[in-house]
């Protein structure tokens, strides 16, 4: 059974290109950096979400236990630090969801 870890990033306006670059980099490297991650996918939601826009980062994990391991992994923590790194005031907040 696959376990999906989904993080939606919600923005007040169009997403900063630096954030796009970071998410693309994480998608390309996360499976080699974190062995228990099966796959990762990053995508844009081009339609408006309320008063802003969203981006979604989805990670497929091997087991339910890996959701917590993923959250505390230093590489995955970069996703949570996006606000400090590149958001420049456009960022609202990441909303993690674990789907079973």
TrEMBL record:
Residues 10-79 form the Stress-response A/B barrel domain. This is Stress-response A/B barrel domain-containing protein. It comes from the Eukaryota. InterPro entries: Dabb, Dimeric_a/b-barrel.
């Amino acid at each position: 059974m696959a376990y999906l870890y989904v993080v939606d990033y919600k923005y007040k306006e169009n997403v900063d290109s630096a954030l796009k670059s970071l998410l693309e980099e994480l998608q390309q490297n996360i499976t080699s950096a974190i062995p228990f991650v099966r796959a990762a996918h990053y995508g844009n939601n081009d339609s408006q979400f309320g008063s802003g826009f969203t981006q979604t980062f989805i990670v497929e994990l091997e087991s339910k236990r890996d959701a917590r391991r993923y959250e505390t992994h230093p590489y995955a923590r970069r996703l949570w630090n996006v606000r400090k790194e590149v958001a420049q005031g456009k960022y609202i907040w990441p909303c993690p969801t674990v789907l079973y």
